[in-house]
């Protein structure tokens, strides 16, 4: 087991396209691991190399900064990875996790957060991870969405500086753990993304202000799909959710589908269900947490400074946090 080297790129990209993605390319790799403002100074992808030199497994660990109140610190998020078909069942996925935790200890990141396909959570647990909530993708065709209107909120285009100020206004008084949205991060996450086209909006309702970020992409048939990716808690109020969706459908009249990722049992998920959205049975993730630095453990639960990391109620997560 070793860290990624430049000579591994071709095998990494071809393996991801064979096992995980429909289209992963060098642009996407460079954006995630070379342009990321939270870089560790090297490409933090674990590589399993067989004795004959064959590259049989990759697991990627994306550096991010997490924040709670006035404190921020480094974590990594598990993302793009695969085990070659002929080498599955040999524990290579668990070995990549153990390698990551061992090699990164003392170098900055405090813990791993991951969103694994629900069926692979057991393998992560075997490597020492604790399992948190389930994350679901909700989908609806525009004609299936009910009870929409635009009177509950004002929705106007916003620049990234404006969005960062709205985030800071919320985060400075919030006690939930979340991914730090610095100006540098927001520019990277939403303006430099090589795959999806993002739009940012300022939302005002009842004297409160917030933001929402949405992205669009076309499917294999050329139909336009939209995803609700990031937002401040104002958008979680039901009358604001319905107004934001009403404005979005007016702005994008040619949409074939609207989607959003939410933790199970979330306020937004409940509202979307009432509005006619359905959970996608093919897209669900298990949230996992694995200690890199020393964390307190109590009955398969992990704690940082007394805060239970495996309790989704202590997190503020949106779809943009899942890489």
Sum up the structure in keywords.
323 residues, alpha+beta, Aminopeptidase, 2 domains, 13-stranded mixed sheet, 8 helices
Notes on the structure:
The protein has helices spanning 9-19, 26-33, 92-104, 121-126, 160-171, 183-191, 238-251, 267-274; strands at 2-3, 45-49, 55-68, 71-83, 111-117, 130-140, 154-157, 178-179, 197-205, 208-218, 224-231, 255-263, 278-291, 296-298, 301-304, 307-308. It has two domains: 2-137 and 283-321, Aminopeptidase (3-Layer(aba) Sandwich); 143-281, Gcn5-related N-acetyltransferase (GNAT) (Aminopeptidase). The two termini are 23 Å apart. The longest helix has 14 residues, at 238-251. A hairpin with a 2-residue loop joins strand 14 (296-298) and strand 15. The protein is 25% helix and 37% strand. The protein has 323 residues and is of the alpha+beta class. The strands form two sheets. Strands 1, 2, 3, 4, 5, 6, 7, 8, 9, 10, 11, 12 and 13 form a 13-stranded mixed sheet that branches. Strands 14-15-16 form a three-stranded antiparallel sheet, with no helix packed on it. The chain has eight helices and 16 strands.
Q: Biggest sheet, in brief? A: 13 strands, mixed
Tell me the span between the first and last alpha carbons: 23 Å
Shape category: globular
Mean pLDDT: 95
**What is the CATH C level class of the largest domain, in words?**
Alpha Beta
Helix proportion: 25-40%
Q: Unreliable segments (pLDDT under 50, ≥5 consecutive)?
A: none
Helix run count? 8
Q: From the 3D structure, determine the CATH topology of the largest domain.
A: Aminopeptidase
- How big is the Rg? 20 Å
Beta strands, count: 16
Structural class: alpha+beta
Under the CATH scheme, the architecture of the largest domain is 3-Layer(aba) Sandwich
Strand content: 35-45%
Q: Give the SSE order as H and E letters.
A: EHHEEEHEHEEHEHEEEHEHEEEE
* The number of domains: 2
CATH homologous group name of the largest domain: Gcn5-related N-acetyltransferase (GNAT)
């Amino acid at each position: 087991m070793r860290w990624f080297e430049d000579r591994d790129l071709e095998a990494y990209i071809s393996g991801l396209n064979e096992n995980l993605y429909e289209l992963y390319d060098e642009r996407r790799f460079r954006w995630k691991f070379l342009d990321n403002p939270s870089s560790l100074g090297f490409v933090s992808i674990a590589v399993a190399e067989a004795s004959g030199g064959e590259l049989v497994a990759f697991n990627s660990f994306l550096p991010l900064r997490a924040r709670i109140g006035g404190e921020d610190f480094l974590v990594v998020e598990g993302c793009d990875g695969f085990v070659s078909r002929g080498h599955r069942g040999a524990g290579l996925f668990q070995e990549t996790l153990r390698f990551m935790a061992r090699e990164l200890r003392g170098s900055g990141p405090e813990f791993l957060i991951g969103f694994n396909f629900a069926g692979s959570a057991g393998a992560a647990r075997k490597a020492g991870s604790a399992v948190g909530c389930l994350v679901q993708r909700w989908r609806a065709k525009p004609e299936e969405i009910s009870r929409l209107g635009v009177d509950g909120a004002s929705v106007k285009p916003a620049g990234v500086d404006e969005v960062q100020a709205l985030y800071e206004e919320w985060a400075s008084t919030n006690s939930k753990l979340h991914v730090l949205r610095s100006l540098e991060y927001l520019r990277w996450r939403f303006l430099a993304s090589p795959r999806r086209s993002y739009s940012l909006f300022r939302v005002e309702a009842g004297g409160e202000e917030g933001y929402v970020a949405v992205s669009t992409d076309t499917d294999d048939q050329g139909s336009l799909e939209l995803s609700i990716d990031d937002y401040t808690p104002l958008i979680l109020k039901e009358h604001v959710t319905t107004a934001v969706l009403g404005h979005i459908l007016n702005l994008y009249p040619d949409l074939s589908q609207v989607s959003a990722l939410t933790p199970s049992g979330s306020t937004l998920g409940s509202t979307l269900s009432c509005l006619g959205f359905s959970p996608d049975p093919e897209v669900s993730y298990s949230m996992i947490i694995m200690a890199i630095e020393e964390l307190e453990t109590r009955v398969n639960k992990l704690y940082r400074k007394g805060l239970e990391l495996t309790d989704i109620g202590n997190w503020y997560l949106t779809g943009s946090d899942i890489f």
